[in-house]
Amino acid sequence: MMKPFAYDLTFPGWKEWMKENQQPAFRAKQVMDWLYVKRVDAFDEMTNLPKDLRERLNETFRLQPLDVLTTQVSSDGTVKFLFGLHDKHAIETVIMRHQYGISVCVTTQVGCRVGCTFCASTLGGLKRNLSAGEIVAQVVQAQKYLDKTDERVKSVVVMGSGEPFENYEPTMDFIRIINDPAGLHIGQRHITVSTSGVVPNIYRFADEDWQVGLAISLHSPNTDLRSKLMPINRRYPLAELLDACWYYLEKTGRRLTFEYALIGGKNDQPEHAHELGKLLKGMNCLVNLIPVNYVPERDYTRTPRKQVFEFKRILDSYRVNTTIRREHGHDIDAACGQLRAKHSNVNA
């Protein structure tokens, strides 16, 4: 059986481990400090720990879940990593620079089984879930990269490959670890989780009583079209999804974000905008319009820029808050899953 990763444990988990191993409780804080503040690469570097404890840590845990296979840097400052895992699978993580600070987009699964027809992440299906530590390590590795220029990760979006709500507990532990003051101390309001619409876990997430943001991948104003674009809609139809969204709004008082990928000739016509405006009117939400990235295997076309602005104008007329996502990494493999797909093909 493979050893767990040191990054898998929450702060309470470290306290419990220290207790089980007859160590004083303050050692938990010291380990967290070495992992998340000093960001060491080996247990032997944890020099204020007794030698026997360092040896026990080495025997019990793996420290480094990720190997850097490829790093792509865009002209706009976006950085995309392809990380290798212990079982020869690969995942992607992205650093994005915004006016408000640096954001990291993390992956929660190797591949994805949701099957959205416009997404590169689903190519090849789902291989496995990531552990909490494998998700945490993506942010740690990104921060190590930024340490070279004295920059800091300000926010995290769980919007990479995979469906976070189909890997629910590890994703929640990931949030607990990066949010913890003893961990990376990233505020809950600076963390956003995106789901394609796993309805039961939207209710569950609302009941977590957190200030973490929630984004819903919507991509259609009606259930028939959504089922064609997103097979998950056959399991959790649009009406059920919206009921869960209303529950979230009432329970948390937080604004929801709806992601809407504009696909040429599929869901980007004026009638779609009017239908979407009527659907969301009166809801405390933000619609984020995303001109779809070209994925060779999908052969979808991008919506013309003028048409994107017209779509936004129509939504604005219904008083639905709308933004157009700023593109990142246009000159590298921008779409989630593209770099991994290339790597898989090369190594097939």
Note the beta-strand portion.
Answer: 15-25%
| Main sheet specs | 10 strands, mixed
Instruction: Report the end-to-end length measured between terminal Cα atoms.
Output: 26 Å
Low-confidence stretches: none
Find the count of extended strands (DSSP E, 2+ residues).
Answer: 12
Looking at CATH, the homologous superfamily of the largest domain is Aldolase class I
Give the name of the CATH architecture of the largest domain. Answer: Alpha-Beta Barrel
Describe this structure in words.
- Keywords: 4Fe-4S, Cytoplasm, Disulfide bond, Iron, Iron-sulfur, Metal-binding, Methyltransferase, rRNA processing, S-adenosyl-L-methionine, Transferase, tRNA processing.
- The model has no long low-confidence stretch (mean pLDDT 92).
- This protein is of the alpha/beta class and 348 residues long.
- The chain has a ten-stranded mixed sheet with strand order 1-2-3-4-7-8-9-10-11-12.
- The longest helix has 16 residues, at 132-147.
- The chain is elongated.
- Helix 1 (11-20) packs across helix 2 (26-37).
- The chain has two domains: 6-60, Orthogonal Bundle (DNA polymerase, domain 1), CATH 1.10.150; 67-346, Aldolase class I (TIM Barrel, Alpha-Beta Barrel), CATH 3.20.20.
- Helix content is 36%, strand content 20%.
- Helix 10 (270-280) links the parallel strand 10 (256-262) and strand 11.
